[in-house]
Amino acid sequence: MEKAGSTQGWTFTIFEEAFNQGYPQELSHFIECVREDKIPVVTGEDGRAVLEMIYAAYISAGTGKKVKLPLENPPKVKYPIELFLGK
User: Burial code of 51-85, b = ≥16 C-beta within 10 A, e = fewer?
Assistant: First the structure.
């Protein structure tokens, strides 16, 4: 029996919640960078570093060993989970 007031399944984000998460500000900053040829606060190099950490985490979880950063020879995989699964 379901409690009164409870919900099931997916719920959609309300506008205020999305606004508080910063998505409109992020999009505005991106547009400003494109229009005014500015360097973004978060660069492609930052994104690459994050992906390298994700890869290292999957490798470490899959092997049970420490992984040093930066990765000397980043593996070529379609999906990072493949590093955990040992594919």
Answer: eeeebbebbeebeeeebeeeeeeeeeeeeeeebee
**Residues 12-48: tens digit of each pLDDT:** 766 666 666 777 888 999 999 999 999 999 999 999 9
Q: How far apart are CA 86 and CA 64, in angstroms?
A: 12
What does the CA dihedral 47, 52, 53, 57 come to, rounded to 10 degrees?
Answer: 140
Q: How far apart are the first and last CA of the chain?
A: 44
pTM: 0.62
